[in-house]
Structure formats: structure tokens, C-alpha cells
């Protein structure tokens, strides 16, 4: 039993930094003293290391995960009149970039157990205007890439993997970001490979696409001060690159620790009444960027408040699916069109998850959920019995 209430954060990167502080500080100071803060050998070194980690031939570092998706769409000449299929249950960056290039986001529903794309709905949504599919490996959980690539291949559609939350996750032992035509990554600090600021990267085995993205991300320059197209400024700075290259060495160990924590959550929460735990597909290996449960019977806010009172902090990803967001009202989606997305947005809660989460903290999370859900179950049973009395 938990004897005292201590606060368990939903996420904490301070402990991780403490372990690598000396290494990071020395590397950052070396970059600062070099005077080379944009481009150069530090960026080249990170790109080579990240490409090698994923088993691809090209990595293009950029300013953010959002830019990674945007650059991919730009390099494929996707724009006005085109459609891109994606999930409605994700952060808006995934669809935002589709809108930014002038194309139309086409939202489909998800699987209730994995929170990822429903592949049957993906295929049903394909039209002559469909130019790409963006699967999101949500919460670190890989999409069924075998099935998705079969669909894409049969319709000659490009696949851009959104790997923002899933660096190191695998499908059939192949890393996400190396299976589709392009992979897009975010290094926002809360990601399982997070920097000390914004950052992103793109992976691909297509040298022409890679070169096009390199041009677009640097103002469209083919040679210095010569431009063939309108580009953007989306460069990863050398300080972020050197930090990420250090962290990349530790990533597999950190991901293993996340998997161990997820296994404990599985073990002790799988039979707790009133919740549903996430499930991995056969062939998929999640890196558990989040561990997201479903709290049933409209009890989420009550349960989260009680957990907070017991020192357990949680997060909601995401409280409203994208197809119902005001920004997309012109697309004409109505409530009820994507029922799984809509239901899960009312139920999902992400538990504390980071590699340094101690056994004591894990125990507190598990104990607190069991206590809260057991009490809720008892109260609901008593309430039901009272209401059925004559």
C-alpha cells in the first residue's frame, strides 16, 4: 500500500538530462566555441547517424516534425485539388500540413484497441484525387504497415509515415520511418527522442526526393543565392543536432525501459474494472511514447481528479478529434461520422510514462488506479441497486 502521497508527473525529462549532462554540456560548448551554428559537420554527423539507425540512405534534418511532414508533401508536389488520407485522432500538425500545401485532408476512423488507422476505412476513402496516405504511429504504436503498403501499392499512392511519437518502434522488426516512401520525425522535448527545443527529420531511400527536400528547406536554393522555387527556412541548428546525436546512443535503452513499464501496467491493470488498456498488434513493437488507457462510462474527469488527489498526474491526448475541430468545419464532417475517434476522445487518458519512472512511482500509479476504479465500481453497483428498488 502507498503510505504517503507523492506527486508522480505525467512526464519528466530532468532525470534523463542529469545522466547525460556532462556529455551534453561538453558537446554544446564545443559547438559554441566552433562558431558554426547552422549546417556543417555536426549536422552531417547527426543525419548520417539517424539514417544508419533506421537503415535508410537519406536523412534530412529540419526545424520540426511539422516541417518534416510539410517538406515531404512539397517534395511530392502535392497541392490544390489533391487529397491526403489520414487519421482524425492525432495532433493537428498531421493535417495542418496537408492544408498548408493546399490539399484536402480526408479523415478516417481508427481501431479502438490500437488507436491507429482503420485500414478498411483507408481503402474505402481512396478516390482518383488521393495522392498520399499519412499513417500516424500514435503513442509509439506502429500501424499495420504490411496491410497499409499493400493498399498503397495497389492504388499507386505514396505513404508518408508520421513517426513523431515513435522513434525506434518496429513493424515486423523493421523500424518505422523506413517502411513507407518517407518518414517524418519530431524531436520536441516530450518525444521519446527529444531535443532541448524544436527539431525534426525526414528519412527516405529516394535520392531525388531527398535532394528536393534539402533544396526546399533552405529557401529553395540550388546554389547560394540562386533559386528555382519558393522554399522555406527549416534548418536544424547545430546545438540541437549534437544533443540529439548523443541521445540517439541511449535511445534503445530508454525505449526498453518504457517497454518494461508498459509491461507492468499491462500486468496489473488488464483486469481492472472500468478501463481498457492499449493493445499491440502481432508484428508491432511499440516504444510507448504514451501509455494511454480508456476510462469507460463517462467517468474520465472524475477518475482523473481522484488520481490527481492521490498524486498521479495524467494527460489527455486528444480531447476532440480533428474532423470536428472548428478549423475544419468547411470540410463538412458531422458528429457521428467517425464514431470510434469521437468515443475515444471522451475516454482516453495517458498515464505517467518516461524511462526514469521508478518502481515506487509505478506502484503508486497502479495502486491509485485500482483504488479509484474499485471505489467507482462499488458506487455504481450501489447506485444501480438503489435505483432498481421498489
Automatic annotation (TrEMBL):
Listed CDD domains: AHBA_syn
Taxonomic source organism: Dulcicalothrix desertica PCC 7102
Coiled coil start-end: none
GO MF annotations in UniProt: pyridoxal phosphate binding; transaminase activity
Highest taxon in the source lineage: Bacteria
Name used for this protein in its record: Aminotransferase DegT
A GO biological-process term: polysaccharide biosynthetic process
Family as reported in the entry's similarity comment: Belongs to the DegT/DnrJ/EryC1 family.
Keywords noted in UniProt: Aminotransferase, Pyridoxal phosphate, Transferase
Annotated positions of the N6-(pyridoxal phosphate)lysine modification: 191
Catalytic residues (UniProt): 191
Keyword Acetylation set for record: no
InterPro entries: DegT/StrS_aminotransferase, PyrdxlP-dep_Trfase, PyrdxlP-dep_Trfase_major, PyrdxlP-dep_Trfase_small
Amino acid at each position: 500500500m502507498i503510505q504517503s502521497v507523492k506527486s508522480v508527473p505525467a512526464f519528466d525529462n530532468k532525470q534523463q538530462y542529469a545522466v547525460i549532462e556532462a556529455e551534453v554540456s561538453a558537446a554544446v560548448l564545443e559547438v559554441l566555441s566552433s562558431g558554426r551554428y547552422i549546417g556543417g559537420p555536426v549536422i552531417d554527423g547527426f543525419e548520417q547517424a539517424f539514417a544508419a539507425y533506421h537503415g535508410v540512405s537519406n536523412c534530412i534534418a529540419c526545424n520540426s516534425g511539422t516541417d518534416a511532414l510539410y517538406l515531404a508533401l512539397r517534395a511530392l508536389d502535392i497541392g490544390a485539388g489533391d487529397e491526403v488520407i489520414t487519421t482524425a485522432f492525432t495532433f493537428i500538425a498531421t493535417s495542418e500540413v496537408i492544408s498548408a500545401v493546399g490539399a484536402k485532408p480526408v479523415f478516417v476512423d481508427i481501431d479502438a484497441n490500437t488507436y491507429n488507422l482503420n485500414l478498411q476505412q483507408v481503402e474505402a476513402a481512396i478516390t482518383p484525387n488521393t495522392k498520399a496516405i499519412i499513417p500516424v504511429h500514435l503513442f509509439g504504436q506502429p500501424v499495420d504497415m504490411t496491410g497499409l503498403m499493400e493498399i498503397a501499392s495497389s492504388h499507386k499512392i505514396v505513404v508518408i509515415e508520421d513517426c513523431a511519437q515513435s522513434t525506434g518502434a518496429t513493424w515486423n522488426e523493421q523500424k518505422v520511418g523506413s517502411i513507407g516512401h518517407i518518414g517524418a520525425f519530431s524531436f520536441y522535448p516530450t518525444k521519446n527522442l527529444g531535443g532541448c527545443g524544436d527539431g525534426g527529420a525526414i528519412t527516405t531511400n529516394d535520392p531525388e526526393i531527398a535532394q528536393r527536400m534539402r533544396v526546399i528547406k533552405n529557401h529553395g536554393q540550388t546554389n547560394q543565392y540562386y533559386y528555382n522555387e519558393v522554399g522555406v527556412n527549416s534548418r536544424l541548428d547545430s546545438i540541437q543536432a549534437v544533443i540529439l546525436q548523443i541521445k540517439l546512443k541511449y535511445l534503445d535503452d530508454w525505449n526498453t525501459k518504457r517497454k518494461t513499464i508498459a509491461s507492468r501496467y499491462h500486468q496489473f491493470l488488464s483486469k481492472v474494472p472500468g478501463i481498457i488498456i492499449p493493445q499491440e498488434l502481432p508484428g508491432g513493437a511499440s516504444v510507448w511514447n504514451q501509455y494511454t488507457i480508456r476510462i469507460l462510462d463517462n467517468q474520465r474527469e472524475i477518475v482523473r481528479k481522484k488520481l490527481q488527489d492521490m498524486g498521479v498526474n495524467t494527460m489527455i491526448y486528444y480531447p476532440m478529434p480533428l474532423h470536428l475541430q472548428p478549423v475544419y468545419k468547411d470540410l463538412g464532417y458531422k458528429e457521428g461520422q467517425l464514431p470510434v475517434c469521437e468515443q475515444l476522445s471522451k475516454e482516453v487518458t495517458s498515464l505517467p510514462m518516461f524511462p526514469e519512472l521508478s518502481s515506487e512511482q509505478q506502484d503508486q500509479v497502479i495502486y491509485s488506479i485500482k483504488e479509484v476504479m474499485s471505489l467507482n465500481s462499488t458506487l455504481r453497483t450501489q447506485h444501480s441497486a438503489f435505483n432498481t428498488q421498489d
